[in-house]
Amino acid sequence: MTAPAKRIAPSSAAADAPMYDEMFQTDGSVRPAYAALNAHISKLSQAELGDRQTTLERSFLLQGITFTVYGADSATERIIPTDLFPRIIDAKTWSHIERGLSQRLQAMNMFLADIYGPQNVIKDGIVPRELILGAPSYRREMMDLYVPHAAYANVCGTDLVRNETGEVMVLEDNLRVPSGVSYMLANRDASKRTFPDAFGAARVRPIENYPDLLLATLKSMASEWRATPQVIVLTPGVYNSAYYEHAYLARLMGVPLVEGRDLVVHDNMVYMRTTLGLRRVDVIYRRVDDDFIDPLTFRRDSALGVAGLFNAYRSGSVVIVNAPGTGVADDKAVYAYVPDFIKYYLGEDAILPNVETYLCREPAALQHTLANLEKLVVKAVGASGGYGMLIGPHATAAQRADFADRLKADPANYIAQPTLKLSTAPCLIDGRIEPRHVDLRPFILSGAKTIVTPGALTRVALTRGSLVVNSSQGGGSKDRWVLSDTPGDETPGAEQPA
Amino acid sequence: MMLARVADSLYWIGRYIERAEHFCRLSDVLLNAAVDRTDSARQAAHIALSAVGDEDVDPQIAIERPAEMVRALVFDRQNTSSVVTSLARARENARQVRDQITTESWERLNLLYLRITGPQAEHLFDQSPAAFLHDIIADLHLFKGASDATMSHGEGWRFLLTGVYLERAQLIARLLDVCFGDAAGGYLLNDHFAQLSVLRMACALEPYLRVYTAELQPRLLMQFLLFDEEFPRSIRFCTARVHEHLTRASRYADMFEGSGGPERLAGRLSARLEFAAFDEVAQMGASAYLATIVQECARIHEAVYDAFVAYPLERRLPA
């Protein structure tokens, strides 16, 4: 018999710098939120844990929860690496996060309504004019356009991290076409099967109604004159890496999964081609980027979109979710101003702080960045997916020198942030339990009302010591349990604001 | 009412899984025939090879190296009608309409695809080709059963089955043409072993025996596969189902102006087979008779496209 796998070492004991561990307190004892899971895991041998991991992976493969990797002469499908241990958050911390996310999205929607309307935030000098109007994701075409409930970003995924003191901070906003919610749901399904006893004992809040909530949000965006609005999901197609998610959401909402070639626009109305002729469409939950939705308005070479869609949208006969042009609010440079405009629009301090950010467009910030490259993370403003960035402490001198040249050439295109010590959570790596860095992406819905789903996609940097959680670069995911009423563990930053 | 593209995909899933199943069965009979190195075995091999479109291959080679032949029929991705190609295409179509088929059906098809493309597949095949083919056929039955038991018997399911039965009618017609048509050179299939093999290729042995007993006769065999009312692989049965499914799928649509329309064509073919007399086949000649059936099936296929999938938009714009 193999030894029980109960020696899960607190990560701070092994690491050279102190980090916040999701499961262990600094004295090595288990946080209360993890008590039920720990009690259960301690009874299992390493072999049993390995078996459960194998079962989990097979179930993902069978369900087709895969992404496609295109090689030289063939395409193979892989599952997103998934870790079987859930990450657990207690009720008190979560209610703090929940309020922070609602506040943030509310302010961001007010910001979008403002910059595509009166532009007071610019006139009052809160945000520089050229930063907004010059952003590639700013869509002039959206000016003065009516958006129901002034809800521009209806589906939002915000990336949160914990720093070394355990404080929850916002790393990034995703207001364009955030993905990952299907993994959140699939991971939940898997972790319930993997640890049924612990799941029951821990009193985890359910997330299975996400498709209902999403559908209700989408319907709330339709014109009140349409008695039974036709909602569709628009996908770029089966070759898109997030196709599984598009099909999953369409299936669980019970609405058609449509490609651009299925749609036609006639007299500013959008129709889909059905077996019984053309049927009018009211709400399009599009999973296609702004650039590609309408070749007449945006990129002319796009084959994924629908000619005339944007004009139909302007005429008010159809709703596009998220609205085109929301990307300007999740721009990495605009990010630095979010706390300012939360204050400006709501008169409140941001509940969830930003990570300290240096805008290299400002000379002083550029000087600071160049002088401290070995300590900072530098990101290109327009890039995403973990590309176009320099992680100073992990880079070679040559890479840093190269980046310094790029910074001097085009400072406005870069921001810098201190290298965060992301919190760690235990993961099963090659049959052993080891701490790995994690972040989390909760999903927020906003239509007639705003709803924060009590769960999140938790992404894991599976490579030891790595801070990059993107699935394109060796990242994986795990489930996240939000508990309903565990007595709070003492988490700094979780205090209620006065 | 469903997306035209989705109806198209479901229809093709039906066609591809039926084709895969038929090819597995022909391969199985080919392997079985090769065990006996007799003239009748050679005839059976020739029939199987002709039915898969490899009539140029010398049956002697198939008899001597059956596993090699069958391996190509199953695993060759260059061959557009190999089992792996059909299953990959069926699954690719299923992925495109993943929101329209139930998880239970999808998992069957996905598992089948993963098994035949997996790293172990050819190894398992080499260990026992017959067992391997048997498992694929059984899994295809599970897929059909899961679809039947879990999908709503609405429009989408009917397009799936239209594909299955239209493909099956054409495959059986092709098999009969190989056995009784002009290309068979007036050869009468009077060999007992060859007749048994043909019945196996059509999965018809046991049902045939229950009707006509073990007295195998070419005429009865052909009559059974063409006109039997209850056997699910007779052409008459298939065309009756095609008619039924198309009628139900289009019951909301008053869209077929004029004489066209897939349900009218399907009804006509079905009625023709329902009220046919075997003498007509003899008078026309088997080849000519079977050719009209294959042509009618092709016209139904085109009519399905014109009516449901690739219709001209200006005729369907809202008034």
Give the topology.
The complex is a heterodimer of chains A (498) and B (319).
Chain A: H1 11-14, H2 35-41, H3 46-63, E1 66-70, E2 75-79, E3 82-89, H4 91-115, H5 120-123, H6 129-133, E4 155-162, E5 168-174, H7 181-194, H8 196-202, H9 210-220, E6 231-234, H10 243-253, E7 257-258, E8 263-266, E9 269-274, E10 277-280, E11 283-286, H11 309-314, E12 319-321, H12 338-346, E13 358-359, H13 363-371, E14 376-380, E15 389-391, H14 397-409, E16 414-418, E17 424-429, E18 432-441, E19 443-446, E20 450-452, E21 457-461, E22 475-482
Parallel strand pairs in A: 3-22, 6-7, 6-11, 11-12
Antiparallel strand pairs in A: 1-2, 4-5, 4-19, 8-9, 9-10, 13-16, 14-15, 14-16, 17-18, 18-21, 19-20, 21-22
Helix pairs in contact in A: 2-8, 3-7, 4-12
Chain B: H1 4-35, H2 39-51, H3 59-64, H4 66-75, H5 83-96, H6 103-117, H7 121-127, H8 129-150, H9 155-180, H10 192-201, H11 205-212, H12 218-227, H13 235-249, H14 262-274, H15 278-284, H16 286-309
Helix pairs in contact in B: 1-2, 1-4, 1-5, 1-8, 1-9, 1-10, 2-9, 2-10, 5-6, 6-8, 7-8, 9-13, 9-16, 13-14, 14-16, 15-16
Low-confidence stretches of chain B: none
**Which sequence of strands runs across the widest sheet of chain A?**
3-22-21-18-17
Largest sheet of chain B: none
Largest interface, Cβ cutoff 8 Å: A-B, 30 and 33 residues
> What oligomeric state do these chains adopt?
heterodimer
* Tally of DSSP helical segments of chain A: 14
Strand content of chain B: under 5%
Give average pLDDT of chain A, whole number.
86
How much is the radius of gyration of chain A in Å?
23 Å
The largest β sheet of chain A comes out as: 5 strands, mixed
Tell me the CATH architecture of the domain at 224-315 in chain A. Answer: 3-Layer(aba) Sandwich
Q: Can you tell me the CATH class of the domain at 224-315 in chain A?
A: Alpha Beta
Q: Provide the succession of SSEs of chain B.
A: HHHHHHHHHHHHHHHH
Q: What is the distance, rounded to the nearest whole angstrom, between the alpha carbons of the first and last residues of chain B?
A: 19 Å
The helix/strand class of chain B is mainly alpha
Shape of chain A: globular
Binned strand content of chain A = 15-25%
Q: What's the CATH topology name of the domain at 224-315 in chain A?
A: Rossmann fold
